[in-house]
Design brief:
With about 575 residues, the chain is α/β, with parallel strands linked by helices. It is built from 22 helices and eleven strands. Among the domains are: about 90 residues, Gyrase A, domain 2 (2-Layer Sandwich); about 100 residues, no CATH class; about 160 residues, Isoleucyl-tRNA Synthetase, Domain 1, CATH 1.10.730. Bound molecules: arginine.
């Protein structure tokens, strides 16, 4: 459909220039959009109204020229000039029927271009936070979509494997390690040690302490914090004992993350954590200073922004702390430069929660001054609200264990499967529970605009009706069961003939797949595809309720089987692009 829309738009532009002469105001392709109401036809061109001024012509005259040129196009059944100059296009059923099988084919809009996508990026020695879960799920869907439209995609897990928390952990590890607990559940033990450290520091400081050491510390540091800083310096200087501990922390955390990635079906091309950039930081900051992008301020090194240059006056961006240490900002500047040097990407996408918006505005403005021209996109999402008590949020600043969330999802999905699928074997039902449970958790995330505030409820996520993964998975399995029955009866899919209105609506829906996928590729908003799949499943269910498939006359049945098979293929492909599996039977 997108190709047709472009073709029509090009012909329309040509018609205008032929009739009124080449004019600078006429684009090479006029915009052809989906009609907003059925009475406006299938496609609509409103360019005549926009071009009237530039051409010095009446909009209806321009519209007439376009209408005349398109009337004989093989895809067009009828053209109408409406209102002040709208051109309404009605597509021919014959054309729709002949081309619907291509609706699943995606255009290679990313051909020859590379995208680096930085997502998941959890912090070592802490269990995955809800923000990393969302980043993992959203990032993975975007990655799949970008690949499907022809981009070369580099998936990079920017692991938080460096920073002040390691000095603290080393202190705690040396003082309070419970070796048995560490042998059994290493990450839990590390979390316990980290919490113990924090409590101790709070106690020594006589009250709450700042999370990270970025803000200038005015008060005398408590002894334990001093010890932590010393351990950190030792680590940075390559002390063998501390380096070994740091590596151990990374190894046990990574093993836990990997188990989760496996369960979610998520993988990366590279895992370049913060520590990877260590030996580039001094040069990076020196370059910022040399190019007069950063300057010293109160002992630290910062980038100042001005309104004229940056569009908005951002607060200063810290790239080296007063104590001489490099920070998250410096690491990210080095990261952008490294990615460009290594992959020459057209786009760099970084997926994190909304709280980092300012950081990335500062980072991108800094990168621009360094001469970076590629598209830099902060793909941010709102933090999801999880109701208390639905899953265990153990002590430790509301950290949520993704493992628990997935276990609970599968447990609940199994209960549903036991109720609704008595015909399946135990093993099949467990597989249904796995696919539905994980699909529900992912889809819950992907089906909402990532920037809106959402709350998680089990009932909504696992509902078999409404815009949920189980609903779409059931829709798919139901169509597959129809197709299996047909095959058993020897009925095969065949060409489409004349289309009843409801069939026509389904066909037009099928054609919307490419539009939805391309929109996700451009805007990095997976919910557009989820909305599309939900609408498609709805169109099929309306069709199926009105038009029997298996009981229809052979020719009609063959056509309806084709529509059913195309719907199933599209649902499967679309869900796959969201990282969600389907089942042949449920
Ligand atoms: N580890 C960071 C965090 O947990 C996210 C990193 C995102 N990527 C980046 N290049 N800064 O907040």
């Amino acid at each position: 459909m997108l190709e047709l829309m472009e073709d029509l738009g090009r012909r329309a532009a040509l018609a205008v220039t032929e009739k009124f002469g080449a004019q600078p105001g006429v684009p090479p392709i006029l915009t052809v959009a989906r009609a907003t109401k059925p009475e406006f036809g299938d496609l609509q061109i409103s360019a005549a109204l926009q071009l009237a001024k530039a051409l010095g012509q009446k909009p209806r005259e321009i519209g007439q020229a376009i209408a005349d040129a398109l009337a004989s196009h093989p895809a067009i059944a009828k053209v109408e000039l409406a209102g002040p100059g709208f051109v309404n296009l009605h597509l021919s059923d014959l054309w729709l029927a002949a081309h619907v099988a291509d609706a699943l084919a995606l255009r290679s809009i990313g051909e020859g271009q590379t995208v680096v996508i930085d997502y998941s990026s959890p912090n070592v020695a802490k269990p995955m936070h809800i923000a990393h879960i969302r980043s993992t799920i959203i990032g993975d869907a975007i990655k799949r979509v970008l690949r499907a439209v022809g981009y070369q995609v580099i998936a990079d897990n920017h692991l938080g494997d460096w920073g002040t928390q390691f000095g603290k952990l080393i202190v705690a590890f040396k003082r309070w390690l419970d070796a048995d607990a560490f042998a059994k559940e290493p990450v839990e033990e590390l979390l316990r040690l980290y919490i113990r450290y924090t409590e101790e520091e709070e106690r020594e400081a006589g009250g709450r302490v700042e999370e990270e050491g970025e803000a200038a510390e005015v008060k005398e540091a408590p002894p334990i914090l001093k010890a932590a800083r010393e351990e950190l310096v030792k680590l940075q200087q390559g002390d063998p004992e501390n380096v070994a501990l740091w590596k151990k922390f990374i190894a046990v955390s990574m093993a836990e993350f990997d188990a989760i990635y496996r369960r979610l079906g998520v993988s990366f091309d590279v895992i370049l954590g913060e520590s990877f950039y260590n030996d580039r930081l001094a040069d990076t900051v020196a370059r910022l200073e040399r190019e007069k992008i950063a300057e010293p301020s109160q002992g630290a090194m910062v980038v100042f922004f001005t309104e004229e240059r940056d569009g908005e006056a951002l607060p200063p961006f810290l790239v080296r702390k007063a104590d001489g240490g490099f920070n998250y900002g410096a690491t990210d500047v080095a990261g952008v430069l490294y990615r460009i040097e290594r992959w020459h990407p057209a786009r760099i996408l970084i997926v994190t929660d909304e709280r980092q918006q300012l950081h990335f505005r500062q980072l991108f403005a800094t990168a621009r001054r360094l001469g970076v021209t590629c598209s830099l996109e902060h793909v941010w999402f709102g933090l999801m609200r999880l109701p208390e008590g639905t899953i265990s949020t153990r002590k430790g600043k509301g950290l949520i264990y993704l493992e628990d969330l997935l276990d609970e999802a599968e447990r609940r999905a199994l209960a549903v499967a036991n109720e609704s699928s008595p015909g399946l074997s135990d093993e099949e039902r467990r597989e249904v529970a796995r696919v539905v449970g994980i699909g529900a958790v992912k889809y819950n995330d992907l089906s909402r605009d990532r920037q809106s505030l959402i709350s998680f409820t089990w009932d909504k996520a696992l509902a078999l009706t409404g815009n949920t993964a189980p609903y779409l998975q059931y829709a798919y399995a139901r169509i597959r069961s129809i197709l299996r029955k047909a095959e058993a009866e020897g009925a095969r899919p065949g060409p489409l003939g004349a289309l009843a209105p409801i069939e026509r609506a389904l066909v037009l829906r099928l054609f919307g797949f490419g539009e939805a996928v391309e929109q996700v590729a451009r805007s990095a908003r997976p919910h557009t595809l989820a909305d599309y799949l939900y609408a498609l499943a709805g169109a099929f269910s309306t069709f199926y309720a009105e038009h029997p498939v298996l009981k229809a006359e052979p020719e009609v049945r063959a056509a309806r089987l084709t529509l059913s098979a195309l719907t199933a293929d599209t649902l499967k492909k679309g869900l796959d692009l969201l990282g969600i599996e389907v089942l042949e039977r449920m």
